[in-house]
TrEMBL record:
Keywords: Dioxygenase, Oxidoreductase. GO terms for molecular function: ferrous iron binding; oxidoreductase activity, acting on single donors with incorporation of molecular oxygen, incorporation of two atoms of oxygen. Residues 10-247 form the Extradiol ring-cleavage dioxygenase class III enzyme subunit B domain. SUPFAM superfamilies: LigB-like (SSF53213). It comes from Pelosinus propionicus DSM 13327. It comes from the Bacteria. Transmembrane segments: none annotated. InterPro entries: Xdiol_dOase_suB (IPR004183). Gene3D superfamilies: LigB-like. This is 3,4-dihydroxyphenylacetate 2,3-dioxygenase.
Length: 268
């Protein structure tokens, strides 16, 4: 995949079992794929990561963390092993995004957020030295509001000209395998594969037309808000390149990359 823009998008998993696999020296195609992605981003010359976490959902407005440093916390009590990942922030870029949001009448706010497990787990495999500064963003509003905010973010990041990885953390459907029978697990997996198919075909906006009852049944993480921010950044018809699609009973390990896609005749 050739990256011709100064922005690149990616969806990555944050399931804590990745830490346990590493501690127990278990092979994992997902861990390998994360490391490979990180190496390619380093070779590309990535200068910052704008990280959208589905675990930071705010009601009043979108939030941006402009801290100088982000200490890692492990906020999942069921995790075997603790992430020690800490990383620098990028206040200059964060404040630039804040100003752009104000000019676009979105009015985001500044908030403080740690590098919790949704950020720390994938990044410690992608950038183990912690040498790439990050700007954490919250999710908020509706899917279309998230898309509009993403469009503002994308235009701002292109103008900034530094090489930025726009990273969305989270799964599609929510699974609690111990409480679900095989039928429900199959339904969740089928739903996830439908999302993967739509994204790979550049049809992510068709998520707006999915059956609402089905969406309620699978309870997608933060109602796709992070995903719609990414579509706003990268372009509504940006096709996803599947790097990993590992199926596990407690959730899929999907890694999907997106290149900048801004044709003039489509919604972007």
């Amino acid at each position: 995949m050739k990256i011709e823009s100064n922005i690149h998008g990616i969806i990555v998993p944050h399931i804590p079992i990745l830490l346990a696999k590493e501690m127990n020296d278990q092979s994992s195609s997902t861990i390998k794929a994360l490391r490979d992605c990180g190496m390619r981003m380093q070779e590309w010359g990535v200068e910052a990561v704008v990280a959208v976490t589905t675990h930071w959902q705010t009601k009043e407005s979108f939030f941006i963390d402009n801290s100088l440093h982000h200490e890692s916390i492990m906020d999942n009590s069921g995790v075997q092993g603790k992430s020690k990942y800490s990383v620098a922030g990028h206040p200059e870029l964060a404040n630039l995004l804040l100003q752009a949001g104000e000019k676009s009448l979105i009015y985001p706010s500044i908030g403080k957020y740690c590098a919790n497990h949704t950020i720390a787990i994938p990044l410690q495999f992608m950038f183990p030295e912690g040498n790439i500064p990050i700007v954490p963003l919250s999710v908020s509003g509706s899917m279309l509001c998230a898309f509009r905010w993403g469009r503002t973010l994308g235009n701002t990041l292109r103008s900034w000209r530094g090489k930025v990885l726009f990273l969305v953390l989270g799964a599609f459907s929510q699974r609690h395998a111990r409480f679900m029978d095989d039928g429900w697990l199959i339904e969740h997996e089928n739903f996830d594969q439908l999302i993967v198919k739509l994204l790979s075909e550049g049809k992510g906006m068709e998520l707006l037309t999915l059956d609402q009852e089905r969406i309620e049944n699978v309870k997608p993480k933060s109602a796709f808000l992070g995903l719609f921010m990414l579509l706003g950044v990268m372009g509504s018809e940006s096709p996803g390149y599947i790097r990993e699609n590992e199926h596990l009973s407690y959730g899929g390990m999907r890694i999907i990359e997106f290149t900048d896609f801004q044709p003039s005749n489509v919604l972007h």
